[in-house]
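Dear H.,

Thanks for agreeing to be a second pair of eyes. The structure we're designing against is below in token form, covering all 626 positions.
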């Protein structure tokens, strides 16, 4: 049987390549600079293994120049260059990578920086150019060659003149079309910013002639422009530098250079991991909440680099949502990229890094909480809500990461406390972790429902964020202690005497309560004597899972379902008001009606709920004042 070779329709293939692999035209520069860097790396590698070659670092660089008049951009390098055969092989055959071959032949393993591997990046030049000219003189050769192509029509190779070893890539930038302008690729500032964005950490200098202006000599107001060759890239990434060489200020500068925020970072974490997967990372915890943080517009993620080249500017998969405020970069050589180098091929390595990073952030926050409380509280003020959202989301599956990081305001300490601190100082008799929900600490402080608990000296956590109660419902318990709302039906307070008397009272007052319930028909599930009230005459409690606070929140949402918490009206039978209510019940049914209505509405007001009919309510008050 005869085996036939696949043939590719190279014209169509090239067209496909150019127009479907890349999503951003600007990456042509990243690809050509990466090739130039590889070419220099190859000479460097040869020099390492061959003593007859000397490698003077200063002699090796990449230069980008623009000529607006001829609409050309030139990328020159002093790298290894290409022979006639190399030009034919590497630039004439799609998907042939001379760099990959070089790595294999020289058994270059991981940890080396050669970037190329797919053999397609070069063709991205056609994203912006209609003609590409390559002039190259190979190391150890005396002849130079010119390769030229207009894209799909094929290419030519002919001998030419070039004084030094290396390669010039000349792009004739496309003319503007009706829909698209290509002029931007002839602008110095635009090229500079593309270099900064993708190639800032290429290890060799990327030079450009930069136009600047200065005061004319002898003048105080007249400026003149001049051109100077400058190195655009930073070369050595800060994360590859030794931690001991770096100062707080260096990290802060990096933070603002990268536009991670206008604030100063509250904390930085510099990680170098060598193991199953190797990577370097610098993470920042910002000091202030970005203005759009709690909106849909906010996009979490870390900058991702592979061998010093930027792959993604916001890799969301590296951060769980609840740590979405973290900024920073990750650089790893162990990532498998797809051929556009824009997307990652496998996410196994990425998942490993993400897990590592998550644990690192967690432990850093825990350390901050332990050693620098003030700083932690500042952090918590900015991002605590996000941690609580994290507890609530994904069915509470992140509780191990988050439960020791959350804090609430405490009735006892009058400041933020952790759950561990609360549980540690719970009285022996105390069964539950108590919390009260409300709009603000000041309002919660005055809630009648808290009276009994405070009287007993129990600590109450104040829930003032909408998410609080939902998060805690997900958490269910902390160190085996369940959470209990101060408005809950059962506060778990064993007080037998009290229980007995209230049972009696309940019996005695049963008819009154039944009477009230029928007046309030449909509004409350039950009316009963309160065990928790001391000085206040009434309050609302709730039966069942849905609390009154949650009802408020759910009903404030768009397309709410009008859910209702089961409300119980509790009456303080030791209060003078109850005596009046009792005598009204016995003597004057109209008055009893009136009192019931007023008491119920008062309870609503205390909860911060709106009352059904404010006019009727005020009229009723007037009636009893007469
Ligand atoms: P890759 O970089 O993934 O190998 P490219 O399409 O970018 O693929 O480049 C193809 C090949 O062409 C490279 O592997 C390299 O051998 C050669 N090449 C491209 N640019 C240069 C250059 N500036 N100097 C020397 N060789 C180059
Ligand atoms: Mg390449």
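And this is the sequence the design step returned. I haven't edited it by hand at all.
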């Amino acid at each position: 049987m005869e085996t036939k070779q696949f043939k590719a329709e190279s014209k169509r293939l090239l067209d496909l390549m150019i127009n479907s692999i890349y999503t951003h035209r600007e990456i042509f520069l990243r690809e050509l600079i990466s090739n130039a860097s590889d070419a220099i790396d190859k000479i460097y590698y040869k020099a390492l293994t061959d003593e007859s070659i000397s490698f003077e670092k200063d002699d090796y660089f990449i230069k980008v120049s623009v000529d607006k008049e001829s609409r050309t951009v030139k990328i020159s390098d002093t790298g290894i260059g290409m022979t006639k055969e190399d030009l034919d092989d590497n630039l004439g055959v799609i998907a042939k990578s001379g760099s990959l071959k070089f790595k294999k032949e020289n058994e270059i393993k991981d940890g080396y920086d050669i970037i190329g591997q797919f053999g397609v990046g070069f063709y991205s030049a056609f994203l912006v150019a209609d003609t590409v000219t390559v002039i190259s003189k190979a190391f150890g050769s005396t002849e130079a060659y010119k390769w030229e192509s207009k894209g799909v029509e094929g290419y030519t190779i002919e001998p030419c003149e070039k004084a030094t070893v290396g390669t010039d890539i000349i792009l004739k930038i496309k003319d503007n079309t009706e829909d698209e302008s290509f002029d931007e690729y002839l602008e110095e500032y635009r090229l500079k910013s593309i270099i900064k964005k993708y190639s800032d950490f290429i290890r060799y200098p990327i030079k450009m002639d930069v136009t600047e202006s200065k005061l004319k000599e002898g003048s105080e107001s007249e400026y003149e422009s001049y051109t100077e060759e400058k190195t655009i890239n930073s070369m050595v990434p800060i994360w590859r530098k030794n931690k001991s060489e770096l100062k707080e200020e260096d990290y802060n500068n990096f933070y603002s250079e990268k536009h991670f925020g206008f604030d100063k970072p509250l904390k930085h974490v510099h990680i170098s991991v060598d193991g199953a997967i190797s990577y370097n990372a610098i993470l920042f915890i910002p000091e202030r909440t970005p203005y759009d943080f709690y909106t849909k517009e906010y996009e979490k993620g870390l900058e991702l680099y592979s061998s010093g080249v930027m792959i993604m500017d916001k890799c969301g998969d590296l951060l769980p949502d609840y740590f979405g405020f973290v900024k920073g970069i990750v650089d790893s050589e162990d990532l498998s990229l797809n051929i556009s180098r824009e997307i990652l091929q496998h996410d196994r390595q990425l998942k490993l890094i993400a897990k590592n990073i998550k644990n690192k952030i967690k432990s850093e926050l825990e350390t901050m909480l332990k050693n620098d409380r003030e700083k932690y509280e500042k952090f918590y003020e900015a991002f605590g809500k996000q941690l609580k959202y994290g507890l609530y989301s994904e069915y509470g599956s992140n509780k191990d990461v988050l439960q020791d990081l959350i804090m609430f305001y405490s009735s006892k300490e009058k400041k933020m406390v952790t759950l561990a601190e609360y549980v540690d100082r719970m009285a022996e008799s105390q069964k539950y972790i108590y919390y009260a929900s409300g709009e603000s600490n000041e309002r919660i402080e005055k809630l009648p429902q808290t009276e009994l608990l405070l009287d007993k000296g129990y600590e109450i956590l104040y829930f003032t964020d909408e998410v609080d109660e939902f998060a805690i419902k997900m958490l269910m318990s902390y160190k085996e202690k369940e959470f209990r709302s101060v408005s809950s039906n059962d506060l778990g307070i064993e007080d037998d005497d009290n229980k007995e008397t209230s049972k009696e009272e309940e019996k005695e007052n049963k008819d009154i309560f039944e009477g009230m319930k029928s007046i309030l028909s449909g509004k409350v599930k039950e009316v009963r004597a309160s065990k928790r009230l001391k000085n206040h005459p009434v309050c609302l409690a709730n039966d069942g899972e849905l609390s009154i606070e949650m009802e408020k929140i759910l009903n404030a949402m768009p397309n709410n379902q009008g859910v209702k918490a089961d409300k119980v009206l509790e009456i303080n039978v030791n209060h003078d008001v109850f005596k009046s209510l009792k005598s009204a019940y016995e003597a004057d049914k109209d008055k009893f009606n009136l009192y019931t209505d007023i008491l119920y509405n008062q309870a609503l007001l205390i909860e911060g709920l709106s009352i059904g009919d404010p006019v009727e309510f005020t009229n009723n008050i007037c009636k009893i004042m007469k």
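Two observations from my side: The mean pLDDT is 90. The longest strand covers residues 206-215.

Warmly,
E.
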